[in-house]
Specification:
Distance between the termini: 41 Å
CATH architecture of the largest domain: Orthogonal Bundle
Largest sheet: 7 strands, antiparallel
Shape: globular
CATH superfamily of the largest domain: Transferase(Phosphotransferase) domain 1
Number of strands: 14
Oligomer: single chain
Radius of gyration: 20 Å
CATH topology of the largest domain: Transferase(Phosphotransferase), domain 1
Order of helices and strands: EHHEEEEEEHEEEHHEEEEHHH
Helix content: 25-40%
Low-confidence stretches: none
CATH class of the largest domain: Mainly Alpha
Strand content: 25-35%
């Protein structure tokens, strides 16, 4: 079991001292749990209080929801275990992501169950919501948009430099704080993330997913983003070739 000292006390104050209590605690799902792989997985929010302050914690629960890996080729491992490891790794690398406050696995009636709880990203919004708002209002300056795109590109480059590929890099999984002035980027939903030794593969896979789902981005937005990500002033012939591959993948159905 992993639990931070601070939240051990906070959870105990709310009669959530261990796995069983948290597992049995009813939470409001953001959406209906996902049933697949012979089990289910869901995420909700838990409202807590500490010293008069309101705290919101994201709680993920899953049952028999695993993925086969090299080290677990038959039984598989809970997908939240991978996310727990990735979040801890990113914290060490100083890459902004949700902070883990609790993780534990147990067997309940013979079924493998896991709980992952993280702090809420205060004042952050998903990129898809921000892009939609900016498109609707149309009063943001080109300079503001370029600053945001540059920050996102630099953050994703730093993420890929750790050796990880996200594998679900959609705008809804890129969270932004203070988008209009001093943008700060955080990544969520890392349960599919894995290590890959090839930088170009990491860029190819994730940027294709982002490009495909990035609504309201103009062609000039996309070009500027690519230039900032690859840290160049203009696309060289090899990078143009790379971008064509990214675009081709992003158009796949």
């Amino acid at each position: 079991m992993f639990q931070t000292k601070r939240y051990r006390q906070i959870f105990a104050q709310h009669q959530l001292a261990g796995f069983e209590q948290i597992w049995n605690k009813k939470i409001e799902w953001f959406e209906e749990p996902n049933y697949r792989r012979g089990g289910w997985s869901g995420v909700g929010q838990l409202a807590l209080q500490s010293n008069g302050d309101d705290l919101n914690v994201f709680v993920k629960k899953q049952q028999n929801h695993g993925r086969r890996t090299l080290f677990h080729p038959f039984s598989g491992e809970p997908t939240f275990r991978r996310e727990f490891k990735r979040l801890g790794f990113l914290e060490v690398c100083r890459i902004k992501a949700p902070k883990v406050v609790f993780y534990e696995e147990q067997k309940v009636e013979g079924k493998v169950c896991a709980i992952l709880a993280t702090e809420t990203l205060l004042d952050f919004q998903p990129l898809d919501v921000i892009a939609q708002d900016w498109h609707a209002v149309k009063h943001k300056t080109r300079l503001q948009k370029k600053k945001l795109l540059k920050t996102i590109a630099a953050s994703l480059r730093d993420f890929h430099d750790t050796g990880l590929v996200h594998r679900a890099l959609y705008p809804k999984h890129i969270f932004i704080k203070d988008a209009e002035n001093q943008p700060e980027v955080a990544l969520i939903d890392l349960e599919k993330a894995r290590f890959n030794i090839l930088f170009l593969y990491r860029a190819y896979f994730d940027l294709a997913a982002l490009n495909r789902h990035a609504k309201y981005w103009s062609r000039s937005d996309r070009l500027y983003f690519f230039l900032q990500y690859f840290q160049v002033k203009r696309l060289t012939k090899p990078l143009r070739f790379m971008c064509r591959f990214i675009l081709r993948r992003s158009m796949r159905r």
